[in-house]
Structures are given as structure tokens and as C-alpha cells.
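Thread: "does anyone have the structure for this chain?"

Original post by V.I.:
We have the sequence but no experimental structure in hand. Need at least a predicted one for the grant figures.
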Amino acid sequence: MIICHARELIFLKGRKVGGTSFEIALSLSCGPGDVITPLTEADEALRVRLGGRGAQNYARVRWPGQWRARSVAFRNHSPAARVRAQVPDWLWSRYRKIAISRDPFEVAVSRYFWRRARGAETEDFGEFVDSHRNRLAANARIAPFEGPDSVDHFLRYDRLAFDAAAVGLSDVYDAMQSIAAKAGVRPPEATAAALYSRHPHAAAIISETCATEIAHFGYRQPV
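Reply from O.Q.:
Generated one for you, C-alpha cells below.
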């Protein structure tokens, strides 16, 4: 999660949406007063090597126009409601809230193979989806698309270049092209269509659990 004062934006980081690469790219243009939440040790090293700012001001921050710093508790995947509760009202109203949106069917596949690569998953894909129902809609909670905590601009994962350009973030997208944070853990043959054709009940679970998100963005069940 990043709050960038020069760009007047708040980046809310969903799970398995390419958010780490976006964060690293965005940090290249951040200043000393911006809020930048910590990444993994390897990703922090990559960020610094590329010339970006490392984690800062996520536990204590002085907002523009204030004399004293205050304690805060910003996390990597802090939901919008928690961020809103910790920033000044004027900042939440003025700054653009931005997040990356990704098809929840793809998010589930990406999360499954990420956990397997870390040795944290031994179930097959269908069992994984069934046992993680409460986490399937996590991104809609982090970055709501309606209500008082709603995001202003969603950058679609499948058309990121176009959507980033539309909100003046082409430079961030361009910088992302040389960053491959957390990439390479999903086998090339593990397409959504292949997995859901073998586990149709998993597709049904996601369709039901993420129905509002799927309808809002126009996503479709792979099979």
C-alpha cells in the first residue's frame, strides 16, 4: 500500500493482482513523506536496487500541514476502510484511490500455485478453493467498488497499460515491465480453463462467492 503525496493518490494493494510490481514501480517516484508499506526482504532489495524508496512512514507519519507525527498501522494489504480511518478526512476526499482488479477465477489459480511454491499447500486445486471460501472475496474487501470506502479508479489486470494511461500512470506501467516480482511460480500449462474443467465445483464456488464482483466487472466463468 502506498500513499503518494506528489501524485495525490492512495494505492490499495489487493492479493495476487500484480500489486508488488506496481508498488515497486510507483515507489520510484515517491518522496520522503510518502507512506510505503514493507514488502518481503527480497522484494525490498529489488526495490532499492531499482532506485525506489523502501518501506517508510507506515508505523508513524506526519501528514502534510501537521507539525507532529502520529502513530498509524498501515499494512501491505490494508483494506480501504482501515486506511480511511487513519488518514485525515481532507486527504481521503482529495486523493485518488486506485487499485488493480483481476478476475477472481484467475486470482484463485495464482494464489494456489503461490502457496504451493512456498510449500504451504498440499491439497489439489478443487480442495483448495473449497477450504478457502472465506478468502475468495478478499480483494473486494480490500478495495470496494461501492460504498463510502470505494475506490475511484480500478486498473484492470488484463488491460493494465490502457487503464494506467487513462489515469496518468503510464510511467508506472512502463517501469513495471522490467520488474517480475513473485513471477514464475505458476506452470505455463496451468491455465484457468484447464484447472476449472477438471474442478467444475471450484468454478461454481467462486461464481457464488464472488458474484457481485464478477457482475460488476463483467468477468466470466472460464468453463
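V.I.: this helps a lot. Strands lie at 2-4, 9-12, 35-36, 60-61, 70-71, 96-101, 153-156.
O.Q.: and The longest helix spans residues 104-117.
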